[in-house]
Amino acid sequence: MFTAAWKSLLGRKLRLLMSTSAIVLGVAFVAGTFVFTDTLSRSFTSIFASTVGDVVVRPVGGTADDAAPTSKSLPASLVERLSDVDGAARADGNITSFGVFVVGENGKVVGGQGAPGLGGNYHDAPAGHGIEGLRITEGTVPSRPDQVAMDAYTAEQAGYEVGDEVHLVTSADQAVLRPTLVGIAEFAEGGSLNGATLTIFDDRTAQRLFLDGKDAYTDAWVTAVDGISQDELRDAVATTLPPGFEAVTGDVAADESSSDLMEAISFITTFLLIFAGVSLVVGSFLIVNTFSILVAQRSRELALLRALGASRRQVTGSVLFEAGVLGAVGSTLGLGLGVLLAMGIRALFATFGLDLSGHALVFEPRTVVASYLVGMVVTVVAAYLPAHRSSRIAPVAALRDDQAMPESSLRRRAVLGGAMLAAGVAAMLVGLFADVSEPTWFVGAGVLATLLGVAGAAPVLGRPLVSVLAAGYRRAFGAVGALAGQNAARNPRRTAATASALMIGLALVTTMAILGASAKASVDRAVAENFTGDVVVSNSIGTAFSPSVADRIERTEGVRSVTRMRYGVGEIDGERQGLTGVDPGGLTSTVDLQMESGSPEDLRDGTVLVSSSRAEEDGLAVGDEISYAMPNGVQRYEVVGVHADSPVLSYPFTTTLGTLEQAGFAVADNFVLVDAAAGTDTAELVRRLERQTADLPTVTVKDQAGFAEEQRGPIDQLLTLVYALLGLALVIAVLGIVNTLALSVVERTRELGLLRAIGTSRRQLRRMVRLEAVVIAVLGAALGAVMGSAFGLALLTSLRDEGLEVIAFPSGQLVGFVVASAVVGILAAVFPARRAARLDVLKAIATE
Asked: How many other C-beta atoms can be found within 10 angstroms of the C-beta atom of residue 575?
């Protein structure tokens, strides 16, 4: 049996190639995901290990992020005292800002798509455990206000060399700097900053720019002498610190930074593995279909083995052996392709600012194990059903010329598919509307069960559409069209299984299209209803920008009022929570704030307005107090108003600019809302403000329509990424159509020969095969569009409270999907159609 199975496998190399390709692509996505995410994790771990000392001394305070920089600092006198601690070899102060961006010679910002623009000072202290950190490898360390150094990657991307005048944009009072590049810095081991940019100033210049000129630092490194552990040095340092400061080991500081960041980007792993799962599910349909056809074609061969004494278990085992070999080969090829795919994913994410090109790909043992496990298990499981079915055929019955493999009862498939469909819908309803701990799991399981249920019932569900297409073919193409329609309907299970692979991919594409269109429509309506100002000025990078920008705008002709908006991030009951700071005087003139209680005129330092959804969640009302852990300690604020949720005030709490400054946040704006003077043309005002900010390429000036378009930008980016990843599943589905048609041509060799013998031309045969492919593609597209629409509408209903209040149905786009699927079907049929037309008539007729 082993020899027979092996010869059978080698005798059908071409037939099995398509099936193997599905395994290869599915495994490649799994392997590529693991390689990419392991590389991502290793890169950040190495960066943080190189950017902490043995002991880090820092101010105690609330948390902040790039969009909400704090003004907390360490006095220089404290850093000097730290060097005298027992066990300390030296102490060095660090100054760090997240708002310094490099403008290249082409006038464009380097990076700026999510990765921060770091600025600060330089010292040559080793990182923790003696690791060599950043070093000046070319030129010198900056020593004057008109000098700067930068990392090698940034200098290369910007087109700068040592001696060039560089263009910098900062979030400090001095918004534009044009110093001379005097040094290039690199990590000793060739690491990179993953897309971030780094600019280095001398200590006094950095203090003037980022710490209001104070002789201070944002934190300090204390380096241990040989033989002293980080824990011992931390304990010694802690005893010398005044209140308001803390000492942590470098290992703890690195773990905090890396774990916070990895938690924030952990969705990338989940995101990619979801698409890997989609590819595997789609590939499973192709594998099941392929083995079903192959086993059907080999029914006489398997029956003969049974007649010669082979048991049912041996017959089943021989088919599963073939599946195992295919799974092993496909997994091996998929593992290799996964490395290339990881490079592609790395390049794709680099366009969003996450550049890992400076790090070698990480290939962990678990990647190999997962790839082979997934590839072989999926293949063997997919092959089991046709293998088991083949073993149940009576040998004498299978040896008859008219015997075909027994098809499962369509009625039974419809019942089972309907039951799974009902279970899937029920699970989605529970996840969307019931109060459960893990709603995402219910929704995900419901979507999968629904897709599989529809796939199971597809032979019945697709009958009306196949009949309609067959009738149309008969009228449009005569006898050839009639034959194409009959061939598609002859084996509804096979047709539906092939169409189901395409259905899954298009269902997800349709869901995302509806969600994307609705999200953009919701943004447009929210901006139109809530923003009453004329112009919005913001940072295209998403971080804070210099307050001097608003000063320029206030002096511009045609401006009536300017409202500054700033962000802070603190903690309420241990949960990170953002806070918006505004100028109360201009709030009502630029934002249509619907108050439910209280008044915006009551907003003053030490008070907050709260959104209605947060007020309801926390049980807050006018007169209540909230406690906020801020950089300068715990602050208590009085609630003076409750307003309807507003997309302009994106955080649930709103206070004054002065309150944020008192809480310890730096003076830097996130948005500037501009109200035009009476009689001023908005378009002309935008042009004036663009001239005012021409030397600040990070700052954008937009009218209401432009602001809405900017808010839609991230949605379009996400959709582009999703469509690119779903493209792999669609490629597998197209391979399924090609594979099914190719195997069908082999199966119908005698029939095609007879058609040629009675006068059918090669052109007519090619048309017949293409028309069959269109039936499969349109059936899959139609089912996918219907399923995707249902999923999209269900998700929109559940997300109505999250701001997706407008349901937009991109009907033109969905029709385009169906038409594109028909075109794909025609293209997928090119190879099988040519093969059918080129069959030798006499040999075809003689085929058993």
From this structure: 8
Percent helix / strand / coil, the chain, rounded to 5: 60, 15, 25
Strand-pairing partners, residue 654, are 580, 609
**Distance between CA atoms of 76 and 206, rounded to whole angstroms?**
13
By three-state DSSP, how is residue 221 classified? strand
Q: At what angle do helices 704-747 and 811-828 cross, to 10 degrees?
A: 30
As a three-state string, the secondary structure of 246-281 is EEEEHHHHHHHHHHHHHHHCHHHHHHHHHHHHHHHH
Determine which helix (DSSP H) or strand (DSSP E) holds 182, and give its type and residue range.
strand 180-187
CB 729 within 8 A of CB 505: yes
Task: Give CA–CA dist 448/627, Å, rounded.
Answer: 44
Burial of 845 (0-12, 13-18, 19+ CB in 10 A): middle
- HSE-CB at 455 with a 13 A cutoff on CA atoms is 25
Q: Which residues pair with 92 in a beta bridge?
A: 221
Sign of CA dihedral 294, 300, 304, 310: positive
Strand partners, 180: 147, 165
**702: three-class secondary structure by DSSP:** strand
* Selection from 630, 645, 544, 640 nearest residue 579 by Cα: 630
Question: How many H helices and E strands in the chain?
Answer: 27, 25
pLDDT tens across 330-376, in order? Answer: 888 888 888 888 888 777 777 666 666 666 788 888 888 888 888 88
Place of tokens 């070999």: 325
Distances (CA, A) of 258 to 50, 153, 255, 721: 12, 22, 5, 25
Q: Using the CB atoms, write b or e for 635-662: b if 16+ within 10 Å.
A: bebebbbbbebbbbbbbbbbbbbebbbe
Query: Rounded to the nearest 5°, which phi and psi values hold at 802?
Result: -95, 10
Exposed e or buried b per residue across 260-269, where buried means at least 16 C-beta atoms within 10 angstroms of its C-beta: ebbeebeebb
Q: How far, rounded to the nearest angstrom, does the alpha carbon of residue 649 sit from its chain's CA centroid? A: 26
Helix 13-49 to helix 312-350 angle, to the nearest 10 degrees? 40
Q: What angle do CA 722, 726, 730 make, to 5 degrees?
A: 155
Distance CA 199, CA 438 (A): 44
Residue 113 has pLDDT above 80, yes or no: no
Residue with structure tokens 């820092």?
Answer: 58
Torsion angle defined by CA atoms of residues 686, 687, 692 and 698, in that order, rounded to the nearest 10 degrees: 70
Please state, in angstroms and as integers, the Cα–Cα distance from residue 36 to each residue in 28, 187, 197, 531, following that order.
Answer: 12, 22, 22, 41
C-alpha span between 798 and 802 (Å, rounded)? 9
- Name the burial class of residue 772, with classes exposed (0-12), middle (13-18) and buried (19+) by CB atoms within 10 angstroms of its CB: buried
Cβ pair 297, 513 in contact under 8 A: no
Q: How far apart are the first and last CA of the chain?
A: 23
Give the C-alpha separation, 693 to 265, whole Å: 33
CA of 528: how far to CAs of 36, 82, 562, 591, in Å?
41, 56, 19, 10
CA distance 246 to 659: 25
Give the residue, 566 or 13, on which the prediction is more confident. Answer: 566
**716: its two tokens:** 């379009």
Asked if residue 57 lies in contact with residue 247, where contact means CB atoms within 8 angstroms, the answer is yes
| d(C-alpha 507, C-alpha 513), whole Å | 10
438 Cβ partners below 8 Å, 6+ apart? none
| Pairing, β 653-656 against β 575-582 | parallel
Both tokens assigned to 474:
């008969």
Backbone angles phi, psi at 60, to 5 degrees: -85, 130
Q: Which residue has the higher pLDDT, 564 or 490?
A: 564
| pLDDT, tens digit (0-9, with 9 covering 90-100), for 199-243 | 999 999 999 999 989 999 999 999 999 989 999 999 999 999 998
**Paired strand residues for 655:** 581
